[in-house]
Amino acid sequence: MTTGDGLPPLREVVDHFGLRAQKSLGQNFLFDLNLTGRIARRAGDLGACDVLEIGPGPGGLTRALLAEGARKVVAIETDPRCLPALEQISAAYDNRLTVLQGDALSIDPAAHLTGPVRVVANLPYNIGTELLVRWLTPQHWPPFWQSLTLMFQKEVAQRIVAQPGSKAYGRLSVLAQWRADPVLAFEISPKAFFPPPKVTSAVVHIERRPEPRYPADAKILGNVVFRAFNQRRKMLRSSLKGLHPDITGLLGQCGVDPTWRAEQVSLQAFCKIAEALAG
């Protein structure tokens, strides 16, 4: 039995190559080609783009990206057991797939990509948040990517799109919404994966903005937000006290109540605090 691209169903591929998902690598394979196609389509028009994928595993999403017309897919995979399956996909799609074997936190794929670039990935749970923070906080803006279409645990996805005043609002909310427009696209049941995780997953689509929503120094803003949410139950005058000799006065100048906690502070207010510290 083959699928529309002439390749075997993913379950057969996994069985053939003995690809048992490893918890240590954050692996949960997505077999449903309807879902992988839906993720690929949510990323937008791929015909004029190179696509960066992290953690392709046996290649379910990879196949969908290529089938949806991606000009080229560059996939970073740390598990050498998956390479033969990915080589099959490359051959079936006229070598439009380039696979880089190694740790996505260490590999710079820039030399293999030609813009515009869209990042589309079912991110491994163990490195997903760190990768997202890196993509949102490059030294120069706009970044190399045009959009990010990423799958996370539902809890993480909710944090990315959360608004002030909610329990989910935090560092990821501020970093994502300062320079980009994130949308929670849809949820995916644990039953869609093998092995099924204990949590529901969700796909987030993030479109970069040409300029940040409010002026602020990225490094200072990142430090303010980290300190504020690292001690989120403390009042701001306590969590930020090491940043300025009169942090209470500075917060007042920014229109921020020093007794507020981090979850009460809007994105614009955080940017005002960063600008005041820079000045």
Could you characterize what this model shows?
There is one protein chain. By secondary structure, this protein is an alpha/beta fold. It has 2 domains: 10-208, 3-Layer(aba) Sandwich (Rossmann fold), CATH 3.40.50; 218-278, Helicase, Ruva Protein, domain 3 (Orthogonal Bundle), CATH 1.10.8.100. 35% of the residues lie in helices and 19% in strands. It is built from 11 helices and 9 strands. It has helices at 10-17, 33-42, 60-67, 83-92, 128-136, 154-161, 171-179, 218-230, 236-239, 247-253, 267-278, and strands at 29-30, 50-54, 72-77, 97-101, 117-122, 145-153, 180-188, 193-194, 201-208. A 7-stranded mixed sheet has the order 4-3-2-5-6-9-7, with helices on both faces. It has a two-stranded antiparallel sheet with strand order 1-8. Strand 3, helix 4 and strand 4 (97-101) form a beta-alpha-beta unit. Helix 2 crosses helix 3 and helix 8 (218-230) crosses helix 11 (267-278). The longest helix has 13 residues, at 218-230. The relative contact order is 0.11. The model has no long low-confidence stretch (mean pLDDT 93).
